[in-house]
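Milestone M4 deliverable, item 7.
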Amino acid sequence: MLTWIINNLGHILTSATIVVAFATWYSTQRKAAKSEIISYTTSLLSQTKTVSHMAEADFLVNSMINKKEKINHESISLETEKAIFLMLNYYEYLCSLVELGVIDRNTLLHLRGGLMKRTYLLCGPYIIQYRKVQNRDEIYRKLQTFSEAVDY
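Output delivered:
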């Protein structure tokens, strides 16, 4: 056995080098992919500040949260309803992207998770009414599930 190892030492070392090189390459590729996903996530989240109608909707919903306003399905203004739908649809879209692995869940949690949860809590009764009116129980379900997982 020792003779075989000595006779094949060059091949053994070459094989070991190839395995180490592959493992290093693979690890580097995974880190790069993760970095790209985090970068894309932050870019997508910054759109709420750079796209004017998103920024306006974000501001309106945030001010409602800060004022602890209640949303009433019957008496909501058209402008407020548009802003709420825009933000809820945006948040549902982000949750779908998390499920698909397109954006990073932890980055979304840290940068927007608390606000997403507060938005869902603000709009929860409205969403329930909307689901009944539309007869579609799945509306904003991904946002609901995501919000329930946020602990801050």
